[in-house]
Amino acid sequence: MTVPGGLSAFPITPADQAGRIDIAALRRLVARLASAGVDSIGLLGSTGTYMYLTIEERRRAVEAAIDEVASRTPVIVGIGALRTDDAIRLAQDAKAIGAAAGLLSAASYTPLTDDEVFEHFSTAARESGLPIVIYDNPGTTHFRFTPELIGRLSNVPGIVAIKNPGWSAEDTGRNLAEQSRIVPKGFSIGCSGDWMATETLLAGADTWYSVLGGLLPNICLKLVRSAQKGEAAEARRLNGELAPIWNVFRQYSSLRVVYALAEQLDLCHSKPPPPILPLPESAKRQVAELLTSSPDIAA
Predict the structure, then answer these.
(1) Which one of the listed residues 50, 95, 135, 209 is annotated catalytic?
(2) CA 247 to CA 115: how far, in whole Å?
(3) What is the dihedral sign for C-alpha 113, 118, 120, 121?
(4) Pairing state between β 40-43 and 75-78
(5) What is the CA radius of gyration of the chain?
(6) Cβ contact 128:160 at 8 Å
(7) Is 272 inside any structural domain?
(8) For residue 255, is it within any domain?
(9) Which residues, listed in sequence order, are joined to residue 191 by a DSSP beta bridge?
(10) 222 is catalytic
(11) 198 neighbors 172 (Cβ within 8 angstroms)
C-alpha cells in the first residue's frame, strides 16, 4: 500500500468540554476537505486532539468521517496510545471501518527506548494489518526517532511512511536525502511544521501533513501543486501569503489558532479540550484581522 502523496489535511475534532464529539460539525469539516480535492484527510492527529478522546469517541469520529467522504478521499487515522494493546485496538477499528492507514506516535509517560518503540510499532503493524505511518513529533511525545530506528522500522512489513517534524530551510535538503538513503524504495517521506513545509516539498518530500490544510485547503493545495510541478517561485509566493498565519501559529501554537480560525470562518464553534484554553480575545481579534486583510487566503 502506498500512502497518498500531496496534501494530507488535518482538521480539528469538534467536541464539547466533556469530550463528546460533535458528529455533525466533524462531518461538515471533512466533507469540505473532500470537496476541495485534498489528497487525504488526517483524522485524529495532534490537531484532532486524539490523546484527549476516549477509544469509543475516536471510533465514532472515524465512522462519521469515513461515512461522510465514502470513497472520495482516503482517510489516515491517528491510532496513537500509551499502551500497545490500545494502539492495536484502535488500528483494528480503523481498518474495519475503512481507513487507508494509521498514524502512530511514540506517545508515553515513561521515556521509551528505541527497542521499545520498535516493538510498539512492529506489533501494531503485524497484529492490525493496517498500513502504518510513523509519526515523529518530539515536541509532544518527547521522543525523537533516530535515523537508525527509522531505517529499522521502514523495513517492517506494513510500515509504509513517515510524517517528519518540520525541518529548517537550511537542513531540509540534507535531511531528506539522508532519510531517502535509509528507507526502501516506495517508502513515503512526508513533512509537517506548516511554516517550514514549502522548502521540504520543493526538495522532493512526498506529502505535506498540514494543520492549516484542515481548514484552508484551497490555498494549501495550490502551494502543494506548485511544488509538485517544480514551480518554486509560485510555491514560495503562496507561502509568503501565509506568513502572517505562520507568525500567529508560532506565537500561540497552531492548535489554539485553528480553533479560532474555525470559529471566525463559521465552520464550527468548539473549544480546545481542557486544560487547553482558547486564544485570549486579543489574539482572536488578531486572527480575525488576518482574514479580513487577506481574504484570498480563505477563498
Answers:
(1) 135
(2) 37
(3) positive
(4) parallel
(5) 18
(6) no
(7) no
(8) no
(9) 164, 208
(10) no
(11) no
Sequence-ordered list of residues with C-beta below 8 angstroms from that of 139, at least 6 positions apart, any chain: 165
pLDDT in tens, 111-145: 999 999 999 999 999 999 999 999 999 999 999 99
Q: Which residue has the cell 487566503?
A: 297
Q: How far apart are CA 203 and CA 155, in angstroms?
A: 24
DSSP track, 249-269:
HHHH-HHHHHHHHHHHTTS--
CATH number (domain holding residue 213): 3.20.20.70
For 45-86, how does the pLDDT look when each residue is reduced to its tens digit (9 = 90+)? 999 999 999 999 999 999 999 999 988 999 999 999 999 999
Q: Is residue 260 part of a domain?
A: no
Instruction: Please name the amino acid found at residue 213.
Output: G
Active-site choice (163, 209, 259, 284): 163
CB 159 within 8 A of CB 188: no
Query: Which domain covers residue 138, as residue numbers?
Result: 6-229
Told to judge if 163 belongs to the known catalytic residues of this protein, a careful annotator would answer yes
| Grid cell at residue 281 | 480575545
Nearest to 261 by CA among 221, 220, 218, 211: 211
Tens-place pLDDT, residues 143-200: 999 999 999 999 999 999 999 999 999 999 999 999 999 999 999 999 999 999 999 9
Q: Determine how many CB atoms are found less than 10 A away from the CB of residue 177.
A: 11
Q: How confident is the model at residue 295 (pLDDT cuts 50, 70, 90)?
A: confident
- As a whole number of angstroms, the distance between CA 162 and CA 149 comes to 12
Give me the number of domains the chain comprises: 1
Cα 171 to Cα 101: distance, rounded to the nearest angstrom? 28
Cα distances (angstroms) measured from residue 135 to each of 121, 153, 164, 217, 240 = 10, 12, 7, 21, 27
Residue 57 grid coordinates: 469517541
